[in-house]
Write a structure and sequence with these properties.
Blueprint lengths: L2 H21 L3 H7 L4 H13 L18 H11 L4 H4 L14 H6 L1 H5 L5 E4 L15 E5 L2 E12 L6 E7 L10 E7 L5 E6 L10 E12 L3 E2 L5 H37 L1 E2 L2 E2 L4 H29 L5 H27 L1 H4 L5 H10 L7 H19 L3
Parallel strand pairs: 1-4
Antiparallel strand pairs: 2-3, 3-7, 4-5, 5-8, 6-7, 9-10
């Protein structure tokens, strides 16, 4: 084993130990309350930061650890073992932070990287999710800054985040690549109003919010990146976000599969362990193959992103599409293996089933992934045939 392999193994073991011993015991109470103490989350972030793992996905250029693709993947696989709200304490931070200028890095980054302040980004709107051309939030240039008007919804932790990275239209007549700008909106901004919290099917304790921007003034110093370059900045981070979503599906499915196998070896039906029944064996086998296929797609995408491969975006789409769809199939089979007990809230199986469904929607729907994959495949075929 090489030194790099040893380092990755140590990082994986550190993340695994923290997740299994510190986070998993907290899951059921958060699930019951559909909430989690902000003080507890701050404490957990501080503990992860002390381990050197907070903001693990960020490059060294902005104060991150600059980990290899293998190391980041190892952390992703371990943190996604636990529930969605608790996995957040590892700080998979928006890569838009790499666009900060020197002042923003000096003033904002220290608190964010220490886990003392939190940041989220606001993209989705009531009339625009995966379709960025439908964004209606506008930013009008005024003296000293910009006035933002519009609405955002389904935004992660907007009610508690210290900073919200908002994507808004600044040049309605331009092409999609040049019409959007990214802004840093502070939580206490007077024009940020009407904060709501949505009730959800799953992801309990992980809050999704909606809010309105009413003549919300953002000074020039809080523009993130160059004006009208918001689309390109967002695209730089979307591949990483899709890998996180794919990894969540993988982590959830792997945990569910392990529980199903253990249960099948213990539970008896018709005079034999469930594991001896061919119908159950088929479900276990299908789960195993799908989980490993998703793991390989995620690994390939991570490596392509790391080396800035021109086809990395397609690889990320493949991984996100397959893993999210796989998660629903695997958790459905696992619930079937558990039977009635799987449907009860005494076990986390029904939570896995509910949580898995959202991954087919967030970070680009399955349909959007298919469109991107198909366009790339058709373009490649057309190039070979001179079309």
């Amino acid at each position: 084993m090489t030194q790099i392999d040893n380092e990755v193994s140590m990082i994986r073991e550190t993340a695994r130990r923290f997740v299994r011993t510190r986070l998993v015991p907290l899951e059921q109470q958060i699930e019951t309350d559909d909430d989690v103490s902000l003080d507890l989350l701050a404490q957990l972030r501080a503990e992860v930061a002390a381990l050197g793992l907070y903001g693990f996905n960020l490059p060294e250029s902005v104060g991150g650890p600059g980990l290899s693709a293998a190391a980041k993947l190892a952390i992703l696989e371990e943190l996604t073992y636990t529930s969605v709200p608790l996995s957040e304490v590892f700080g998979h931070l928006p890569l838009q932070l790499t666009q900060m200028d020197e002042r923003q890095r000096a003033d904002l980054l220290p608190g964010i990287l220490a886990g003392q302040q939190t940041v989220t980004y606001a993209l989705t709107e009531p009339n625009a999710g995966s379709d960025l051309s439908g964004l209606r939030t506008r930013a009008e240039k005024v003296e000293g800054g910009w006035l933002l008007n519009g609405s955002k919804h389904f935004i992660s932790h907007a009610e508690t985040a210290d900073y919200i990275i908002v994507l808004a239209v600044t040049d309605p007549t331009a092409s999609l690549k040049s019409k959007l700008t990214t802004f840093i909106v502070h939580r206490n901004s007077p024009g940020l109003v009407g904060m709501t919290r949505y009730r959800k099917m799953g992801w309990r304790g992980y809050h999704l919010n909606g809010f309105t921007l009413e003549n919300c003034f953002v000074p020039d110093e809080d523009v993130l990146g160059a004006p009208h370059a918001g689309f390109l900045g967002m695209m730089r981070s979307i591949n990483h976000d899709r890998l996180l979503s794919a990894s969540r599906s993988l982590g959830l499915s792997s945990r569910a599969q392990t529980m199903a196998c253990e249960y099948a070896l213990e539970r008896k039906a018709f005079g034999a362990n469930l594991a001896q029944h061919q119908a159950v064996q088929f479900m276990v086998a299908d789960n195993d193959v799908e989980i490993e296929a998703a793991r390989e797609l995620i690994r390939v995408a991570a490596e392509m992103i790391e080396r800035d491969d021109s086809q990395a975006h397609v690889a990320a789409c493949r991984a996100k599409l397959y893993a999210s769809e796989m998660g629903c199939r695997v958790t459905d089979r696992v619930l079937q293996i558990f039977g009635g007990m799987g449907y009860m809230t005494e076990l986390p199986v029904e939570r896995f089933y509910r949580d898995a469904r959202a991954f087919r929607i967030g970070e680009g729907t399955s349909e959007m992934q298919r469109i991107q994959i198909a366009r790339a495949a058709l373009a490649q075929a057309g190039g070979r045939h001179g079309v």
